Amino acid sequence: MSQQAGYSPSFKRPAEIMRMRRKRARSDAGAFCSPNSQGCAGRPEESDSSPLSVRSFSPGPLFHSQNRSGGGIKRRNPFANIENTYSPKKRSLSSNNDGNADTADGHKSTEKEGDDMSTKTECPGDVAFSARLSEVEKREHQDIFSKKCLTFSKDDSLFEEEEEDVKSLLLKSPQAIVPIAPASIAPPICTEYPADWSLKTRVLFTSPLSLLWAEHPKAQEEAVGLSHHCRAQFSTLPHSLQDPRSCSELRCAFQQSLVYWQHPSLPWIRLFPRINAERSFTGKSTPWAQDPALQQSLMSEWSVSLSSLYSLLKTRLCPFFYLCSYQFTVLFRAAGLGGSSNITALITPTTRGLREAMKAEGIEFSLPLAGERRMNREQQNLAPHQGGEEEQREEAQRCSELKEGEDCQAGDDGEKDGYNDDEDGSFSWLKEMGVEDKIKKPDSITMQLRKEGHAVCLDHKPESVVCVEGAHTFTLINFLINCKSVVAVAGSQAGLPPTLLAPMAFRGATMHTLKARSVNVKSQVGSTFQNISSLEITGPILPSTLHTITTLLRPAQKGNFSAALYTHTPTAVMNTQTTNQQCTSGSADLSGCGLHPASIRQLEQPLSLGKTALTHINMNNYSYTWKT
């Protein structure tokens, strides 16, 4: 560092500094070559000690013949050193110019040792000019790549190159190109999360940006949102919003996404959820509980509403709806949704009595998750058999299960005949052996319970989910209208029809809106506290509602938010794959169902979550991640 050209190793010794100045002045006077002179090759030190390449003692410009005697030379800073006088740009330039650094080292060694330099055939002025030219070119190349070559595109994810500057730079100096770091390549972006057909009771959104824009809408904004919902009109929002509170279109669209339709509607009673919700009905006024005429009137109106919903579903004017009773929930989906080409209905949880009643009405159904239980049981049976009786019992249970799903009808017929002949001749061999009186004969009730034991153990479990497809869904509607088990006979929900929920209007329905509340809280991140804004939405949150709200939060929160989802537990298995017959996306025309086109595309995807539901959704830099 102390050998840099024009610098003293220490400014504390003025005598040494003055001696070096006088020595440098004499050396420059002897080696100076006039531009007009032609015999420059024979003079000593004329190439390496040229005034065009010698820097003064102060950190000023290079000496040259025009300004040696003139003013304007920068005065030396007594506190200057090599670290604080070189800018970062000059340091990077000096590290790249290894050839110039070697030349400068030759200058210093010549000045200190006082040795004679070897003569060259070129003029020192030409050498200095070429050195300065190469330095200027390298500076131009570096400026082009640092300022002009790379620019951001509109989506802030890719780089666009200016072809003219790059081509000219390649022609001049291909080695000056600096490769782009791998970190500049954007990671793959997941713009969508899988469809979740379960009902949510509560969703909590959090974001580092404020969510107060979603609360306290103006009267005009709420009116526009309700009008757009009824007319199925959707506003187009920009990719990113600078101030969401001042964007009226965003606030109107948010109010539009909170709307759902329900029947019946009783303001003093919360009619969702209905399973294990006796506490919500306790102490409430239920005038229909002891009035059969009022119960009949309620059921008549409910039947009309259910028939209206199925008609809308069949004509693809309503994409889906839910029927929530006190002991099970039914999801009806239009053809084309969930990857199915037919209308599908899922019932969960079910009991053996309900399944037997459906069979009696001629409704064909399947148990999608019962096959998994059968496969697991067969894997366990690969172990050594413990006895003939146990093997027969396991085989009877498997065939009974297959009979529930109607997967092995041929085997069921033979086994069923065996059970029917129990009383007639199945124990005739005991009489032939003469031990009929010594062995206790099991009665028919015990035999029937043993036969149906495995079917009963599925009751009220996720594996009891039932799938009905195609034209049998119409038979299921008639069954639900006439079935007395959909209405509780005793208890706090006695006489009250099931709750119907849909994203579209139907006959007898009442418009409701979800409750939204925004709060600013502090969350601990490491050892510090960070301001976090939260938005809580409560109520029966439908799959389309969840997707619409997350679509609005994407531009409003600049692609950074997270959501905690609270699922109505009995409906989590509604994400189960229901059919082997799949349809391609967009094969069914659902443009008139009243949902946003983006929500329709998501709900058309095949089911992928199985019997689980989403619990967390996180968006970071416009990319989704989720947990189940």
Walk me through this protein's architecture.
The protein has 628 residues and is an alpha+beta fold. It folds into five domains: 14-148, no CATH class; 150-184, no CATH class; 200-258 and 514-576 and 611-627, no CATH class; 278-367 and 462-502, no CATH class; 376-456, no CATH class. Helix content is 38%, strand content 14%. The protein is built from 21 helices and 15 strands. The chain has helices at residues 14-31, 82-85, 88-96, 98-113, 124-148, 163-172, 219-231, 248-257, 278-281, 292-314, 352-360, 370-380, 388-405, 409-420, 422-426, 428-433, 444-451, 453-456, 472-482, 543-556, 597-603; strands at residues 150-152, 159-161, 200-207, 259-263, 320-324, 329-333, 344-348, 466-469, 499-502, 510-513, 515-525, 528-541, 560-567, 616-620, 623-627. Strands 8-7-6-5-9-4-10 form a seven-stranded antiparallel sheet. Helix 8 (248-257) packs antiparallel against helix 20, helix 12 (370-380) runs antiparallel to helix 13 and helix 20 (543-556) packs across helix 21 (597-603). The longest helix has 25 residues, at 124-148. The protein is elongated and about 140 Å long. It starts with 13 loop residues before the first helix and ends with a strand. The model is unreliable at 33-70, 103-129, 144-184, 382-388 and 401-425 (pLDDT under 50).
